[in-house]
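Dear all,

This email documents one entry for the complex benchmark we are building for the journal club exercise. For each entry we list the sequence lines for every component of the assembly. Then comes the predicted three-dimensional structure of the complex as a token string, followed by one or two observations. Please use this as the template for your own entries, and keep the labels exactly as they appear.
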Amino acid sequence: MSLSVSHPSIAVLCSGGGSNLQALISRVDCGDVEARIAWVASNNGNAFALERARRAGIPAHHVSALTEGGSEGVERKLLELLEEHSVRVLVLAGYMKVLPAAVIRALPGRVVNIHPALLPAFGGKGMYGAHVHEAVLKSGAQWTGVTIHLVTENYDEGPVLRQRVAAVVPGDTPATLGARVLALEHDTLWREVRALLERT
Ligand code: GRF
């Protein structure tokens, strides 16, 4: 595992299974991304993403309004964790909560989110998980894909950093389309994290 102290620190926020986190861990481990994952945090104490982090020897934190005594506590805790580990890039990989504005301001241009469609299409309220792929199929679109964008205070509207396209094929269901897009996500997130580390 690449744990050189000279490597910049990144941190990852997740809410669910954490397959994107896993893909990033693998790329850090093999040296494709020269970084150290300082910590992983989730608003959901049962998120499998936290277990994946622990298995990889990465500190895993449950940070929610419940654990921190309210939303101000969440903001305080996240800021504390960012500062303590001098985090350069914060990655939202399936994080289902709105990030406190103070956290976004603490890392200007260095907080990224991954979305399973080609924003600005199929983004915004209610567009998460299978809902995104259902909407793509319903629209009759022949293409969908992956978007990595900067997180700004206007959610899902931050500048697009990288997009990749996936085909919608006849007979697709939300599950088959979702699996195709997810595989592309796994091969995309680390590339943008690496690029962002190189230019910040
Ligand atoms: C991914 O589709 C990501 O684009 C979206 O949430 C999902 C997270 O999946 N924001 P996983 O937890 O990384 O498996």
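Observations: Residues 14, 16-20, 93-94, 114-116, 182, 185 surround 5-O-phosphono-beta-D-ribofuranosylamine (CB under 6 Å). The two ends are 23 Å apart (CA to CA).
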